[in-house]
Design goal:
Elements: E1 22-24, E2 27-29, H1 41-52, E3 61-64, E4 67-70, H2 75-80, E5 88-91, E6 94-97, E7 100-103, H3 105-112
Antiparallel strand pairs: 1-2, 3-4, 5-6, 6-7
Length: 117
């Protein structure tokens, strides 16, 4: 499971908003939610996930930042969450293929389509 936009679910503390403000030609702005790229954003998100899922981690769930792997009790439940006969699959933001680990092109799309100025 991928907690898509997970970082954007964490509100910035009111006293910290001024620390991440930025200025453009259109005015001054600050983030209301924790943006990607802050020095400790990944660690903050991981701590929150560890706190939220503390009763499940190591038993039913493994959490790696915004990716989660659910562990199930029965063989039938395992089959329901599996995909068989696929050429590739997404895991931890990468594409896993029979040839190895590759970049997930969806993650690169914004940069590829940026164009030059």
């Amino acid at each position: 499971m991928d907690a898509y936009y997970g970082y954007n679910q964490i509100l910035m503390h009111p006293l910290d908003k001024a620390k991440i403000a930025f200025i453009t030609d259109d005015g001054s702005y600050y983030y209301k939610v924790m943006p990607l790229g802050l020095k400790d954003a990944g660690a903050t998100y991981q701590r929150l996930m560890d706190r939220i899922f503390k009763d499940c981690i190591d038993h039913d769930l493994e959490v790696y930042v915004d990716d989660m792997v659910a562990k199930l009790a029965t063989r039938e439940q395992h089959y329901e969450k599996c995909s068989f006969g696929v050429q590739a699959g997404k895991f931890l933001g990468f594409m896993l293929t029979r040839r190895g680990i590759k970049v997930n092109l969806e993650k690169c799309e914004v940069v590829i389509n940026m164009g030059t100025r």
